[in-house]
Protein 1
Amino acid sequence: MEQSVSNFALSTNGQSVTFDIIVQKRAIGCAITRDALERHFWLERGAVVSHLTKAFGNGQQRIAAVAERKALAKGATQVLITADDFDYR
């Protein structure tokens, strides 16, 4: 299922991008770490903010799908996505 992402923004410490998705009619607050973007979405280490948001935008569908799966699996109202979430075993 394709997810719609809203309200995406850089966190205050610059170490993650925050965003919201709707899962089963519930708003889920999400964040993806800068490390995950660097390791899995071709963000250069130490990149400027504009590159961080571009990397997020380019991977938005895949990121939202992982957020949705985590929210459903855990019944969570908040989800933190790390690089480990993209390491398939």
Protein 2
Amino acid sequence: MSITFVFFYSAINWGQKLINVKVNIWHMAKEMSKEEKIGFHKGSLATLTKEREELMRILQIVEQLMQMHIKELKGLGVDLIAQAKEMKAAETKKLKGKKPIEDVLR
């Protein structure tokens, strides 16, 4: 299994868990006292803060890896800026003549 697949699979599972948590919170909130709700939400914020910090750490690692690959490609003589411009031009040509999303959804 590649790292990209594992990361993508983890992101999907995380999204599904988030939906389940939202539904469970809504049901639990109906049955809790005010003090319980306050404690629950404070605990949730503490947990989510730690999750956000972990996500930031993962993003920093990904950014470092990307920078390493960019540096190596430049050292090998690959002009990434020119390739990005070519890709953008090709994408622009592909999109010409297509309807805007607003028109498609009507």
